[in-house]
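User: My advisor asked me to double-check a structure prediction for AraC-type DNA-binding protein before group meeting. I don't want to rely on an old file, so could you generate it fresh from this sequence?
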Amino acid sequence: MARKTKLNKPEIPQYVLNDFRHLHREEADTSSFGYNNLEREKKIAGMEIYSSEGLRSAVGPLKSDFYRISITLRGSVDVQLGLEQFKHRPGTLSFTFPGQVFSKSNISADTFGYYILFNADFLQEIIPVDKIPEEFPFFDYAGVPFIQLQEAEITAVADFCGKINEELQHHRPGCEKAIRMYLYLLLLEVKRSYVAQQLHLTATDTRSTYLVPRFKKLVSQHFLSKKRVADYAALLGVTPNHLNRMVKEVTGHTASDAIAEMLVQEAKAVLRYTDTSVAEISYQLNFSDPAGFNRFFREQTGQTPLAFRKNA
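Assistant: Sure, here is a fresh prediction for AraC-type DNA-binding protein from the sequence you gave:
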């Protein structure tokens, strides 16, 4: 096989919506909410909704090319979006957008909620694809992808999930348009709380609410092309020493550790969910050679890439 040149460098694999179910649902799951076990003729393209019944005990790390909304009504779930870690509890929502590395773990036995997956063009009749991050900032790197709602707000969100499910199950005339509108109204309900809670980040915020969270978001966005602390310090307008000191004070780890963690997450996602060779993965992740990638992965995880793949 001919060696690929940099001009032909492939993209990191991302899952598409119609080839994703086997990664998040138990194989023998018989629940019937939303898309789960829905008759083929009732399915619509570009959007899926599920309850947490039948959800696998752990999902990811992986990346997908669609948007995701996770809604917890009962119990607790650990969610990691890039470098940011969150604990879901009743009334919690989190959001991911195409290209993010995402994982769920430690799902408590009493957990119940919903999650919605949709392609970028699903809402294009209501909002242009390129305007989604602007309209709903929790779907943007600069936004906050995690929100805690009040009881009345989470009840309204759950009601919209119920309405979407009802449209899917009955499949009445106009159901696709109704589902798009209910999804938009759900997002609008969340945005109102997001704005009221002033969750957006600004350059005038304090160290703990701006610099370190912004650094984490930048790493999640640029880690494949920017691997030096100095690169992120320049983007944030601070010195590398200052950035390292702030990150260490807030997280207990260095800025370099954070960059390495993001690379490891990406590597684990590709190793676990694809049959891409270790040599090709090292190339995708911008390592100079496979030996360097092997050495890095072993230093970070205590095992070789092939050993991780075998045990994943």
